[in-house]
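Justification of computing resources. Each target in the renewal requires a structure prediction run like the one illustrated here; the chain below, 1529 residues long, is used simply to show the kind of job we budget for.
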Amino acid sequence: MAITHKGSNILEIERLIDRLGYGDSGVAKKLPCLTGTREPVLARIKRWIEEPSSKHCFSLFGAAGTGKSAIAVSIANQEKGTGRLGAGFYFTRDEQARNKGAILVLARQLANWGDRRLRSDIASAVQEEPDIGQMTAEYQFQKLIQDPLEAIDTASPTLLIILDALDECDMQYATTLLCLFGKGVAKLPPQVKLFVSSRGAPHIQACYGSEPLNSHLETHSLSDEKIELVDNDINSYFKERLPELVGQWVEEPLDWPGEERRRSLVRMSERLFIWATTVAGMLADPNFRDPEKQLQALLSSDSTTNLDRIYAKILDRACSSTVSQDVLARFRSVLGALVVAPVPINIHTLSSLTRPDDDELDRRAFTNRIRVTVLVYLQAVLIVPDVEKSDPAQDAHPIRFIHTSFVDYLTDKSRCDPRFYIDLSDQHRQLAIICFGRLQDLRRNMCDLDPSLLNWEVEGLEKKVNDCIPAGLRYACANVATHVSRAPTNCTDIHRLVREFVGKRLMNWLEGLSLMGRTHEAVGMAALIESWLKAAQTPPSSLELMYPAPKARPGSAFVIDFERLATTFAQLEPSRMAVLFFAIIHLFMADLLSRLQGPSSPSTTFPSIDSSPHAQTLALLNDFRRFVMEFMDPISASSLHIYYSALPFTPSRTSLSRRYCRPDDGGPKVIRGQGEIWSHTLWTASKHSNSINCIAVSPDSQTIVSGSADFTMRLWDADDGAPIGKAIRGHSDAVNCLSVSPDGRFIVSGSADRTLRMWDASTGSSVGNAMEGHSDTVNCVAVSPDSRRIVSGSSDKTLCLWDATTRTSVGPALKGHTQWVKCVAVYPDGKTIISGSFDSTIRRWNATTGALVGDAMRGHSLAVTCIAVTPNGKTIISGSSDQSLRLWDATSGAPVGGPIRGHTDYVRCLVVSTDGKMIVSGSEDRTLRRWDVTTGAPVADALEGHSHGVRCLASSADGSVIVSGSSDKTLRRWDVSSSSSHGNPLSGHNDMILCLAVSPNGKVIVSGSYDQTLRLWNAITGAPMGMVMRGHSGPVICLAISPNGRTVISGSMDNTLRLWDGATGASVGKVLTGHTNHVRCLAVFPNGKLIVSGSYDKTLRMWNAITGEPVGNPMKGHSDTMTCVAVCPRGKMIVSGSRDKSLRLWDAATGASVGKAMLGHTDQVRCLAVSPDGKIVVSGSYDKTVRLWNAVTGEAVGKVMRGHSEAVDCVAMFPDGRKIASGSRDATVRMWDISTGESVGEAMKGHTDAVHCLAVLPNGKKIASGSHDRTLRIWDVNSGTSVGRVMKEHSDRVTCLAVSPGGNVIVTGSGDRTLRLWNATESAAPENDIVGHSNWINCFAVSPDGKIIVSGSYDRTIRLWDAVTGAPVGTVMEGHSEPVTCIVVSPDGTIVASGSWDKTVRLWNGTTGAAIGDAMEGHSGSITSVTFSPDGRFVVSRGERPGSPEVIVWDASSQQRVDGADLSMVLGDVVDQPPRMFRLNNHGWLRDERGKRMFWVPTGLRARMDVLGNVLALYKPTVPLIDVSAYVS
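Resulting structure tokens:
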């Protein structure tokens, strides 16, 4: 409702209009036509304005420089005098930020036009949404322009709106603006007119060609004007302007330069007004004092017959060919900076961006140099404000180009003089480097702010920021990402600078953005740098330079790509050149030696340099984006709370935490409860006041819509969860369902008020009246794929069809269900509707006739609550109150498989991914679960976060993001793509990881590397264990762990084996020497007593695993290098494979060869495995085949398994011994049936390079494969399809793979020098909960060293816990007969004292939990507190007593009461210290006892809070503990 103009409301309207701001329309920068020129076109436009029946829109087209803007300004000046000019906006290419404020500028002008109704309607829109300036363009236009204009009186005078140079606006915004005008044009009163000038850009022409705008459009093209008219206008311009401009230089200026020469200039202009104005500016340039000579030169030259040549002449005159290269470089750098700067910059910022770091001139002198040597000579093409009026601390008075055609000329290589050509990509490179240089000046708290104050609370913050952060540094903060993203990707200088910047200055950069009010842009800026870095051409590794050609024959495949090698050397630092050089020499010599020894193929184990220098940088940038999204509230509120509120709560195992979190930052220290990795939740949003019942995502994935039991709907930004506009109201009861049309135009909602309503998807405005027809609650709604039909389901047991255009019902209600219709969906082809009901059935309906299709689909035992169809239309998925999901054949309606179970409460909602491979379901059990569509198997662990049941789900267009709504009144956006890798890579090796193994108990990982070392890792946390295992003098290429896990055995290119302690990494015993060439493979016997190794020296050797002594003689028989070896399960036989194309069996007791060589392969044997029963050997070969052999006789078994098209690099047996898995250089994985030798199913395709390693998980249901394409994939054995997402965090090829004994963790090693842990079910490692008490925890304490937590409970017990892992320590402390009320730990941590409702105090051993002595009795009431004296000699207890507390002092040693003790002597200062008081407000800010703001607490940790000294306990499942002692003043 509009605000009236009576009384004080006039002042209120004024205040509201002021909220629109005072944006610049841009008209002051443009000049009108000269009087007497352009009269025909001006007259035509005037007739259009004055004719009541003329069309709403007039479009003026013209090429660059034809005078469009001058015409627009002339029209504005003309109509301003008549009172018809309502609003105008004049776009410029170099002010995109200003351009995007056009709607607000237009709205303010319209409000001031003079129509009271229009003014009050605009004020009402601002009153309804105070933050309208932050809303979408669609919302702003509807509320501020369209709705108010529709409501003006038809008797009002003509109202003209001008949009000039629309083509110079950002393409997307220009299209949006024109389409918004076009969409509502038919609803406008006839007197509203829109004038638009632009070039004939394709996107603008497309908008004009669409309806309804095309029917309301009149056009005029300046290219159609008569030549003589344009020439006369340009002649008039010269006749009036030239004498005026050159008067001070010419003796008789009145008619200068004369009619004949004016006509010559007119002919040369080629009817371009910009040519005329540029020439006039050039002749009048005061730096060239003789315009007569300038004119003579111009007229006598044949090279000045178009605009380009005029620009060339201006540039040549400003910087002649005789100037030095330094001057020319400075000239070009100044122009380049002005051209590529995303926003117009003033001379001070320009000086900062172009001044060399080693320049001896100070800032002011250098600025003046730029002005006098560059800018003053370009006044014909630049607007240069007076430098004296430009404040260095401000960004005002920017330098501007007079016309964008000059920029087009400078950046077109085919047109511009090479001396002045601006290569945009290279210029962005230069400015990126300069920005990184300026960012070196960033430091923490540059403005010396008080961390207890929020940004808006700091008096004079803007001035502080401008004074403390120079203009060049502000520019660098805001624009470095833009310049990096547009620089060449092969620029190694920027690679290095990005790595340094990301590794050292991310937090300082974010602080600067926060102070500038641009925190929300940080995520996008980081994404730009991340995308650029991913696209960058990184130097190839030595492995890539020398890897055998895939089709090459063995013995001739050693190839060096010298062209790539030269490029690589040029990009490497000197220290790394040496590494690569010696790696190549080593390879060459090894290959030469191998050739001299006999024919062979080169090993695929090669040296490597750091082939992924950007891996850590990319990890930090990804963490940074999550960091900003997670902590947007405190960071945008206060720049310093990056350090005080965000970093302390950053997950501890993230790259960002490891790099930037420091214990001395002065913020809180999380003792326990800090997460290890980012949660799946990207953001949480809460604005609804009741349960969220339904959500949907717009087709472009930009907007989320939610409907609630609070009767409203809301729009949300999908990127950050920010609300868009206010609540959408219209329904009179709960909103139960909604859907966004596939074309994105409208939203339809259904409610408990028995109606449906339609809404405009861009603005949230209601479209038409409510759609009535149901006699009970509307429960579900869907829109057909063509957006023409709507279908709804109701508690009245029927479905209704509706026409989406007329919003009327189509045909009678669809009847068939016997209970409420709860869910509905439409097939992808739009021909069939499916519905689910409380009658436990699913029904199909013909979407055209409404007739039932087939019988009811039965299978669920309770209500069908949700339903969906896969994108290919072949499968139906349903969810039910019976806690299960089911799959159905969409054609026949038959069930596919059994129920899918996993949820523990009602399944409320489900969605199917866009690729049709995954189902996501939400349940009343508060979780989301993901399932494979084909098999129904779970894809990953449950997603947890909601505190109440999940009621609705929606998926983004690409399926990577899921949004859920809950009864807890919140929406959550989930990042599904981050769910597979356990945090960050295990980094520590200095070169490629070549081999790894997992201990039998699954707790330890061992890795071996080309850096000649082995390392131990905790398989749960990824933390390094023990010492680095050094000793080998060559790369470690094979290793194994003894069956008891106590010993690690390694083999190396130094020809030796070594034994290591499996717990500490210490070397055990002596070096195992005997081989005369590299140790290539090894295995441990099942009893752990013997080791067998194979070598490049063509022999096998056995060793005593305890003493390291050799057992027997070398086992000879192969004629070439050993490639693989295994011991049969019973330990009686050894099997080996070799480059000599054969396998051999050996007696493990004697070392003698058993039988003949197992021949059959036609190329080297690459891999082998033995069946679980020891009867079958399987081998894979370079000859592309897999073969089976009798493990006793050595005879070939079954037929040759053919199918791979390249070498077979790895094989594995299934646990049941019935199937084999193989991986090949053809990038596929295959399964084979042992009994038939036939392939099982099709090849598993997905990898894009060689499959180098694989394993079958212990349950036999999945296969894990690692590839040279840098990814790990998990395959479902039944379906042969890849399960879950591709795990691609490695930045170089996956070289080795192992699976934990339980099958839950996969470990991969890579050429990128890292190991990674993966959950085989794609879930993140959960944090351990502290679980043990059977009732409430009443009190807790932390040991002085922070390692032990002590808890007291209502269950009458006390427990000790490890503060890091949450594991119980010692025994349960039992003895109190009533709940424990208080506990304390002695200063030395050795004793725990407890008090209870049973009126006693007890002492316990602080390490074991054992009771110390008997209960200390004496209190007459419950114990309320216990305290140790500072020296630990005394315990002071306080108990309840009528009147005043009862205080007793006890001797901690004798446990006797100490009567008459002086408390001040016993406790010292402790007795005088009041307990600290903290207050946590609704926005999450914690304040101390003085009301001083301390830090912000994340949403997930806000709960009941207890205080113990300087430690806060926030009661959640894991009881986080936070030390705030750093805040004690």
